[in-house]
Write a structure and sequence with these properties.
By secondary structure, the protein is of the alpha+beta class. It has one domain. Strand 3 and strand 4 form a beta hairpin.
Length: about 110
Amino acid sequence: MDVDLRAWVEAHRGGFERTGVKVQFIRSNPPNSTRPEKGQSLRFEAEGQIVDFLLWDSGECEVLSGETPAAVTVTQHRVLSEADLSELARRLFPDALASLDENSVADD
């Protein structure tokens, strides 16, 4: 896996914040994991929605989302690059991630 979540968050924080989505890099190794590989974690919060990305070195990405921590849906994805991560985030936060496209153009 070639994704640095902390760097990705910092590169796109402005786009998320402009649309009211708080994004936070939480930790580099989720605690209490029984998985042999290492992982990274992100939390997104927007108007009554919480989304956690747990990204493992293998490229597996578990997405936990719900209106509250008690009402969580878990989905599994494959994330092998920052482009994969951006595409997954676009599906979850389409309004916020429109600004990712603007940031990409501005960064060029």
